[in-house]
Amino acid sequence: MKKQTRDTALAYGLRDRGLIAPGYKADFNLIDFAALRARLPELVYDLPAGGRRLVQRADGYRATFVSGVEVMRDGAPTGALPGGLVRGPQPAGADAPAP
Hints:
Oligomer: single chain
Largest sheet: 4 strands, antiparallel
Helix content: under 10%
Strand content: 25-35%
């Protein structure tokens, strides 16, 4: 798991991610692997001026957390939007600014 989490975060200079510990971002998914499956792609028209994009949803993702806040539950948004734009390397754990 470390190669998919901490090592990848460090490779991109995101020293405040990749661990579940005090002072870290706590971005993670809870996945039900027995129910995990990709749905068929679908075309949605939700961009400005009726623009289209291809979306492929998945089942089996029970919850998604961003900065320790649940943003998705069973494929539906909770309404919470704690994330933000990341520009460049980030400070490590306890050095990271408080949310």
